[in-house]
Specification:
single chain; ten-stranded mixed sheet; 6 helices; globular
């Protein structure tokens, strides 16, 4: 049975996360409902990364198995005609049976956007995080370097996390400032439940001067979630993509361009 990969973007503000639930208010439920109408048959989906309530995606990757024969452009436009405004298929591609949206991914990348301003913006509500205390970029970058590599991230995992091990490899953590906006880009082999939002809480504590960058080393050593900062809001968190071996030749998402386009902002802001 042919396998199809889809690139999906969505505004998580309207959804109770990716994974299907009895109430049906999830992205997976919405996409599978559209697929059932588009294909005239049920179609189950497998995704690259399960996002939580309120978390957005610019580069979610999904695969399905189907006997349907459609043009690639029809997959995109046909499904989008059946999806709500907050969800849209960005591309479609036939992939070999060896491709698996979750298990073939060698890494996943997330972007967190924080607006650092004295007053909150109602137009960006639900789309970016907000911090009104001044943030020190150099201190946050120092802390970020201490998180790189393989660590036990127990201090940054949710109590509901079902992962068999808290060991993860954080491959990169880049922090850039564009005017009032700070962009935090995370790449890892995999993430624990709430791991990025918990890391954001700690990084912002350090950026505000509440803790020194060396606090990260202490938290990693303690392996105790209770000693770390509170979990930060989901508003500014975006799944921007999953990396796969080159033989699959999947489209790439240019994170910096995509996020500014999504927010209707200029990447050349002063």
């Amino acid at each position: 049975m042919p396998r199809m990969a889809l690139g999906v973007a969505y505004d998580g503000s309207f959804w109770q996360g990716w994974q299907t639930q009895p109430g049906g208010r999830t992205v997976q439920d919405s996409l599978e409902s559209a697929l059932k109408r588009f294909l005239a048959q049920p179609a189950g989906t497998i995704c690259a990364g399960r996002t939580d309530t309120g978390v957005h995606a610019l580069g979610q990757v999904v695969h399905i198995d189907t006997t349907a024969d459609r043009r690639l452009e029809s997959w995109v436009r046909g499904l989008n005609a059946l999806l709500p405004d907050s969800v849209a298929v960005q591309w479609a591609q036939v992939v070999p049976d060896s491709f698996h949206a979750r298990f073939s991914a060698v890494s996943r990348s997330y972007l967190y956007v924080v607006r650092n301003a004295r007053v909150r913006s109602p137009l960006l509500h639900g789309r970016v995080g907000w911090c009104y205390h001044a943030l020190n970029l150099d201190h946050m970058r120092d802390a970020a370097q201490r998180l790189l590599g393989e660590h036990d991230f127990s201090s940054f995992r949710s109590s509901q996390c079902q992962a068999a091990s808290p060991i993860r490899t954080l491959q990169s953590l880049d922090i850039a400032q564009h005017g009032d906006f700070f962009l935090f880009t995370f790449q890892a082999n995999a993430f624990l439940h709430h791991m990025i939002r918990n890391l954001m809480g700690a990084l912002l504590y350090i950026g505000q001067g509440k803790q020194a960058p060396s606090w990260i080393n202490t938290l990693l050593a303690q392996r105790d979630r209770r000693q770390a900062a509170p979990t930060y809001a989901p508003d500014g968190l975006y799944l921007i993509g999953a990396d796969y071996p080159p033989q699959f030749q999947l489209p790439l998402v240019l994170a910096s361009q995509a996020i500014f386009s999504h927010l209707g902002l200029s990447p050349f802001m002063p």
